[in-house]
Amino acid sequence: MDVTKGENSNQSEDVMVQFVANAYVGVVEWWLKNGMPYPPRVMAEKVGDLLERIV
Predict the structure, then answer these.
(1) Which has more confidence, 17 or 39?
(2) Could you tell me if residue 14 is inside a domain?
(3) Per-residue confidence at 14, pLDDT binned at 50, 70, 90?
(4) Rounded alpha-carbon distances, angstroms, from residue 40 to 4, 6, 13, 35, 36
(5) What is the pLDDT of residue 5?
(6) 17 in a structural domain
(7) Rounded to 5 degrees, what are φ and ψ at 37?
(8) 11 against 22, higher pLDDT
(9) Residue 8: which residues within 8 A CB-CB, separation 6 or more?
(10) How many domains does the chain have?
């Protein structure tokens, strides 16, 4: 994440890292608690797509 320019220029890198890490862990936790309703490959693609949007 580049915090020196663009939309992220006013953000703290520490806060951004915590946000992304917690979002990732939360999605994996949801996936496991709900009986893994999507195959691992699909989840990896979906989470990857979401993470690309916020970086």
Answers:
(1) 39
(2) yes
(3) confident
(4) 34, 33, 29, 12, 8
(5) 61
(6) yes
(7) -65, -15
(8) 22
(9) 1, 2, 16
(10) 1
Is 1 a domain residue? no
CA nearest 44: which of 22, 24, 23, 26?
Answer: 24
CA distance 10 to 23: 20
Within 13 Å, how many C-alpha atoms sit on residue 19's CB side?
Answer: 12
**Residue 39 maps to a domain:** yes
Residue type at position 8: N
pLDDT digits (tens, 9 = 90+) for 26-55: 999 999 999 999 999 999 999 989 888 766
Residue 14 lies in domain: 6-54
The three-class DSSP label of residue 12 is coil
